[in-house]
Amino acid sequence: MPDMPTSSSTPPKHKSTSPYVFLPLAFLIGLAAGYFIWGFHVTAETADTTNTTRRVNVSAGDSPALGPANAPITIIEFSDYQCPYCRLWHQTVYDRLLASYPGKIRFVYRDYPLPGHPEALPAAEAAQCAGEQNDYFKYHDALFTQAHGLGTNAYDQYALELGLDVNAFSQCLSSGRTAAAINDEVTYATSLGVSSTPTFFINGITVVGAEPYETFQQIIDQELAGKN
Hints:
With 228 residues, the protein is α+β, with helices and mostly antiparallel strands. It is built from 8 helices and 5 strands.
């Protein structure tokens, strides 16, 4: 949050009166004002921590999901395969998070390819085509390694290494038949106020950006303890 601007104006003075006469009074007034402002600031911060957590009603739709359908924690991620921050989160938090809460998390991946990333939509289509062969998340993980980068040849290589039917995969990808569903994901995400990647909803609680493991851990632990 940007710093609030401060006023540069000073109280009017009588030209005939020496300014030194008013110094003790000005000091006391400033001290009292500072105490009031400081006290209000602390009170406001304290009040914020006790407010009921705001939640967004987010649907998982028909998007690919990992974990039990009745898990107490649902994490819905809107992400982009060409987004470096999405890749960072996947490499540093994703596996650790799922391993830390076995059976307690249902993780849902929803596509939000950004227009400035030319390979984001094709990569999302490739993952959807892998999903048609029931290997969505293996392909999802392979894309985030970027072992072969992104691009048509890379998508075929990932499919080959995962043992997919490469002919069927290539036919799906070249047909573009999954693009409409991905565009629907973008429309839905935008309606929720999503504007950047990665954006997460943990039981409806919004987390924006590649936040560290501890951020997710804190929210999940509070949810499991019923503190939110």
